[in-house]
Input
Amino acid sequence: LDGAFSALHVKDASQLWASLTTEPELASSALAACCIRGRVALLDDGPIVISQTTGLVNEARWLLTPRQQPGIAVAEFGEGPLGILLTKRPRGLVVSSFSKPRNEAVPRVGDALCAVNGRQIQKDSTLNDAVAILKGVGRPVLVGFRPATAEELRSERPPEPAHWPVERKPSPPPTSRAQTDLQALASYARSAVETVTEAPPVDHGELPPGLDARPPPPLSTAPVAADGWAVATLPGEVLFARTNARLQDYVRARSGSNQLCGCVIDGELHVTSYRVVFHPIGCGAVPSFASQSTDWEMPVRALTACSLKVDSGHKLSFKCKDGQRRVFTCAPRDGAAALACARAVHALAFSSASDAFARAYKAASTEDPAFARHLPRTASYSLRDEYAHSVLRGPAADQLKIIRNEHALDICETYPLELVVPSATTDLELRRVAAYRSKGRLPVIIWSHPTNGATISRSSQPKPGVQNKRSSDDERYLDSIRRLAQGQRMVIVDARSKVATQGNRVMGLGTELVRYYEGIELFYGNIANIHTARDSLSEVQKLCFARDLTGNDADSGGATFWGRLDGTKWLSQVHSILCAALKTVELVHYERTAVLVHCSDGWDRTPQITCLALMLLEKRFRTIDGFLTLLQKEWVDFGHKFDERCGHTDESASDQRSPVFLLFIDCCFQLIQQFPSAFEFNQDLLLLLLDQLNACRFGTFLENNQRRRSRKSLDDATRHVWAHVAAHFDAVRNGAYVDDEDAAPLLPSLHARNVRLFEAYFRRFDAARVPLSRARTFY
Output
């Protein structure tokens, strides 16, 4: 603190030394105020003030009596969110309403936020600044508000409630050269954390200015095309708009040739409440987008952007989540119809009501009896029955119990209502273990070996932080799970890299301090985070859809397709996930070792590893029925954030969207390729799941966890995507499947040359694919 003391004003320094001898209690507070000033000077992280008054001794008095500052009302908040909604106003961040009942008089609606634990909130501060400060302090927290005057309330219109922002402030750039040891530590902390750039706003495309954003009224009668074709609507599907359009495509130059040539396809474009359909008329060749029919169709919720440009004609552009980009040209006489199509797409595709069509489809359709006939276990699925079949069995059965994650023992909102834990664990210990884990996702057992007692558990990361905080309850809890295995050993499979875990320690998180856990080791999976996965997918999609007017690869720069594919790092990520899953299988089955799998929060990379490991370990999960129950349990029930990762609504920031589930499905494709007779399903089932992931026709892949689905009654108001699987049961069933009762665990090859591109998905609309075949779609 030498630099901080030397930087003090002479008057402050003299008052500090005088208070040391005359007012010991005040002196200690003055020293604390000085330390805060010193911390600011060394870390250079913005102004921190103790009060509105100047002078070190005045700041010290404010530290002693924080509620007695003139002109400021102070409120103390405990655990959880503050429960206040803020709105940006010229005089600062103003309280607009309350999200939960309040009995205290502070704050009132209209009061301006001015300080948090002594740190001043400037008038030009944004909501992001306030969120960052509140996240960085503990609880309880003292928050200061400046009461609004009558004139200020009269001059401002009544503010509307605002949602608490989810964007995060970008990390400051690390300093090039540290001037002090403390600066060096801060610089290392910034560089070690997995950096997350500020989320850009979601771009849904541009429409002509002044265009009415409301959807056009539904068409009273379904129009019939010139060739007699009409849209075959689904139950609950409504037609909103149609227009004549033409589309640039690539087709085979002549019969018997694989050479491509560009052509223009005339047809009609229809927009319904569920999809966009383009029907070619008079096309002599098979379009590159042809599937079961020659039509191109895409669910509106699977679109990420829709633009309409009227500079030279009317060009209606669609950008799809699977990487497709389609540009339709409309004649000037069809301009009004093109505008109606654009309005309909924007209103239907980008609204917050992602479940609108799913509810309409359920209300207008009837239950398919094929669901219970082909998939009896999935149709009658319950989590307790699944625990009975795969967890409460073998040597570990008597030492485990099912708890209810609700009411008095409500330990984690993103977990299902029923969890399996060691039977000797008390409710108090469970709460303490959950408090030591990120988002409260404590280790729970999801599978146990039928003969050796080894278990597979999942959780989120612990919270040791840079101070190496321990939890004796967490240590005893993992020890009780470890002792269930015959090998009396546990390995924690951390899906992240070691560098990433060190970066999380700076944020108060990290990984287990294994020196305090008896018989426990660490294994790092080195699986990339969601941001790297999103960037890799974007590059793969650009590579697979890059075509010039002659149909050749554009912007290749002399590089081969496979060389550029390797540069995307997509297959490297698939390989890393397979390695972590295989390591889990070897530990549990051959080394009789308990395994705990986690990543950061336990809902992205964790289910990738656990699902693949269980598919390799147990034959039941390689059947269609067993595979679907596994997806329901590990992905849906245990809270994968489908809404955020798939971008079903704009409530999820663009930097939170990531192809986590697509990576898992790609890994399933790799297993099917290596073991063609070991799986009852083929790659068509994988395509069906990916198509319905973004279509929002069913409620299974909506919302971020089971409780949020229950609050919206999605299970009752929508149909399950598993029923759609049953409707296509013959198509997704593998004819080469061999039902081997004594099947041993599968051990896939991890050689890099055996990890292949999932061409049936990534290149199904690629005009250059050879041999040319119709794309398989299951919308």
